Amino acid sequence: MDFKSSDTITGPRAEDHLPHTAQAAVKIVIVGGFGVGKTTMVGSVSEIKPLTTEETMTQAGIGVDDNYGSESKTATTVAMDFGRISITDQLVLYLFGTPGQERFWFLWNGLFEGALGAVVLIDTRRLEVSFDVIGRLEERGVPFVVAVNDFPDAPGYPIEDLRTALDLPEEIPIVKCDARRRASSRDTLMTLMRFLHSLAITSARV
């Protein structure tokens, strides 16, 4: 291809450059069923413009995708979402949001590769869709925390009742969050990092 002298090649925006103080990068996956807020969380907390692979939902998905509780949703992630957040001057998290529709779950294996931990987003209106998600993480041995996303019409349950319903051991953190709010999403990620740190300390003592 021939470029004219007037053509301009642009690179990453200045605000997208990795901080020069960064010394460690960690891969984190945001997982959950369809419509639980994974794309929203990545977008709200990312310090760079997030990469999304959302496509418009069509009639072809009727009878195939379970969108109960998310009937107004018009687009869905078909590959992944990607964002980045600096937890400290030295530590950077790379965030990968997984597709929620079960027919795209085959992509999860690649997204899980190299992941240090995961956030499982759940919607209390459709708690059952979280069972297979949690089961996949347990099978792969990926440490995770559970975040209960705040939907206006979702019923609220005590944390211990949710723990029992999800059959989770006491040591796995369960937190409430609002994926639309940067501070809440960041607090959820900090909960995961503290959990991973505690696991590392326990492992070092063994």
TrEMBL record:
Keyword Hydrolase among record annotations: yes
Record-linked Pfam families: ATP_bind_1
Sorted UniProt keywords: GTP-binding, Hydrolase, Nucleotide-binding
Superkingdom classification of source: Bacteria
Keyword Protein transport: no
Family: Belongs to the GPN-loop GTPase family.
PANTHER family: ATP/GTP-BINDING PROTEIN-RELATED, GLIDING MOTILITY PROTEIN MGLA
Annotated protein name in UniProt: ATP/GTP-binding protein
